[in-house]
Amino acid sequence: MRNSFLRFYHPVVLQELPEYFPTDSKSLACPGMPKRYSLVDSDNRNIQDYWKTKNILYNLNENYFRTSHNFETLKDNEFILAAGCSITMGVGIDEESRWTNQLEKKLNIPIVNLGVGGSDVNTLIRNVSTYIANYNKPKAIIIQIPEMTRFSYLESNGLLECRTYYFVNEVIKDSASKIEKQGADYHFNQEVAILQLITLQTVMSAFRIPVIYFSIYPLDLKYYDNIDNDSVNHNSYIDVDNAGAVSHLFPNDVIHYFHIQTNKADFEKYQGILMAYGRDHSHPGDLQNTIWAEKLEKILQSKFRNKD
After folding, report:
1. 302 CB contacts (<8 Å, ≥6 apart)?
2. The whole model's pTM is what?
3. Residue 231: pLDDT above 50?
4. Quick check: bond before 23 cis, omega within 30?
5. With the CA atoms of 280, 281, 282 and 288 taken in that order, what torsion angle do they form, in degrees rounded to the nearest 10?
């Protein structure tokens, strides 16, 4: 009997499929979008006009993943699993522009995209584990690390809900449920997420499956200051000198920091050709996804050479 993937999307958020998906909703893509979003990029190109030339569709499979690969037909060591949040799912961009699709073409190997919008590290690990238990073993696993104070819990309706420390303590505040408050307190210093990633690394190493991690957030082990008084911002960090601390917890060349804007040379290479913003104006466009695919191609080619 197969294990089932947890359900993580409420039916309400799927009503605009396949044309739109939160936060890439119809209301945002139409005139009158919120003022906080820029209408043009740094080259004065209209972001909406750029994406009108692309075929942005959110075609989800029976397990609610945005991937066209048939899980049943892929064989051991002949595909790669990719897991992440909305950045990997590709919110705001077409499927072909995603780093997973571009990397698949570069490596000439199928890449199964298990990206889940708004997810946490725990959800990614659950999905990767469920896939391997139900189907076949991948040649490698790529994990795009979400915001590390995110945490998930099951609602009574069986849906997986996800929150962040900031959302609980700064947005919903007094209306937060007991489980939301407890989850935020437990995950506030990011160590829980890091330990989950280390566990995945350890287990997959036993099966000789290489795991590559990348983050668009600095790999610093940050600690939130959660002192409850009026003079302290709940979302501020304790000032500790631990830059790059997370990377020291993993083997060499396993975990990587890909800044969302990339370094200047990488960025300028595609300036005015590709778009830095997705259609929803808040997720990365095809520019960052292209650069990430290039970086991951080099990393994986090296891993495969060493493995063989």
Report:
1. 253
2. 0.90
3. no
4. yes
5. 110
